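Checklist before submission:
- one chain only
- standard amino acids only
- sequence pasted in full

Submission:
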Amino acid sequence: MKSTRLALLLALAAALSGCSSHVPAPLYDPRALPTGPLGDSIAYGYAIMVKTHHLMKPYVRADLTCADCHVAAGTKPRGGSFIGTYARFPQWNKRAHRVIALQDRIAECFLYSMNGRVPAYSSKAMVAIVAYIAWLSRNTPIGATQPASDRYIEPLPSAAPNPARGAALYAQRCVKCHGVDGQGLSGAFPPLWGDRSFNEGAGMAHIDRMTGFVRYNMPYDAPGSLSLAAAYDVAAFVLRHPRPHFAKNALVQPRPLPARYF
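Returned file contents:
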């Protein structure tokens, strides 16, 4: 009798163990970080992702966080994921007409999406952002391309978008988070247009990118519930509103450092 009961308990334990092995580990788990300064830097990079406006106040003018465009701090597929990003740099950049490093791409985010200014490449914040992205990419081979299942930019519908239809959809599906005036709720939901939003040079200001992002990630409480055509209409409605101008001739000055720093 005891042996039968023991066998049943062992079988149950094995079954439960088998079930738990199929539960994916979180892509960012602070308990799994390296100990010491490196782990601290990675954790700070994560904090910047979710508290950008608070931690990087001198460098941002938009009322946004990095996680507004990189969902779940860059860990959601088709949500601006950072998984593997570190492995794809340096890379040729069409907009810059040059080969850029990852720090250059992050600088673009501060200039365009945050409508702000660039932290020094050697600063604690920039190093932390790179460290965080590198940590998320640690299992991706160098040079690996982004898998199609992770991309949200797709060919747009052949018919032109209908902003009026988009306005109706916005009123039905988007107002509760972003407001009638598109200004969102500071600290919770980002403004989609106006002085506190991303500027006209940002990636999200391009209708193909906003369409794909909306299709796969919005509304926040029902991602994927909009068709491609519906997301296209909503994006057209949002992007017809004014937003900050990008000052493309503004000078970006690196922080001078003594030779001993290197």
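Reviewer check: The two ends are 72 Å apart (CA to CA).
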